[in-house]
Amino acid sequence: MSTCQTAVMDYRILASISCPAEDLPLDELRVRGAGALLDEEFAQLTELEGPDGEPLAAYGHFLALHPDGVIASWTVEAPSLAIAESSARVALQEILTGSRLLADWTIESCEVTVSDEELAAAAQAEDPVPEPTEQEVRALTREQLLRSARCLTAFSLDDFGPEVPQEHALMMAGSLIEATGFLMGQLHADIQLLETHEVSVDEYQALGDEHDGLWIMDVLPERFADRYFGGTVGRMLLTSVTVLGHRLTEPAWHGAQSTAEALALHLIIGEAKGLLEHFGVVPMEEFTPAMDRFATVALADVDHKELGQLYDPDGVDGPDLSLWFTPRDGRPPHPFLLDNEGLLGEEDQFPGQE
Fold first, then answer.
1. Res. 345 pLDDT band, cuts 50 70 90
2. pTM confidence score
């Protein structure tokens, strides 16, 4: 007996996702935070479920950010336009409701961008879109960094050094904003892995080579690896998104308020250097001393010796993990950082918590 398999076609989905009306308009860093979270979710979305339970391949996502939310686009292999649209909407809704930080966002629209007939005609197109050249990538990166630089209002361009050309200083400022978004995405990905396996970073590393590595193992002090759970990484994510990221866009900088903020800013500066080196938009011999100068200004109130002690794998000096999120000026920590049972549940407690 022969089996007839339903033919499938590639459908490009276009979805508009909006944040709650009371939060509008979003500042650029908050939009980038949401974009980073969605980017990680879409990166893992390789298969949808059709109406009869059949698997539908999904790939090639693209996100466009704007002050009201995010526009998402990706490709779904499905037997019909209707099935592609309905399956994509269900998957997108599951992404939102499954995220603590995006659960109250709504899907304004989710539809295929062309009809079956238009898609068939497009398949006959002769010339594929060429890959951008290295020069084009560098030009696009330059434009993006210059746009992002407008967000870094807590510092002046002179903080990179008065001798640095203005455009180069702007691109360095933009690289810090872009690196903040990267940090958000990497932390979110690590949270997903730790919560899925319900283990600490130390325990996850012991699971074997078949498991993807954790980004935080390369950047956070290794000596606390057995105490890094999803909640700890979640607190670092919250620090980078709602505390550190927001304060970078304020009129003035008042210093890192906790060890966690100092660590987050240290990581952001490091990632920004890597971005500038990778795309070659600013010469390394120029951005290295300029970014080091910026770090001196941004972390002026931080005990660098104390921060360095945390990275000694055999050391015992430096603030304990339980004190990382406590503000230096004695104020109470951000409420979400203390929520053991809620948004960022954590296993270890702060002093004074029962």
1. very low
2. 0.60
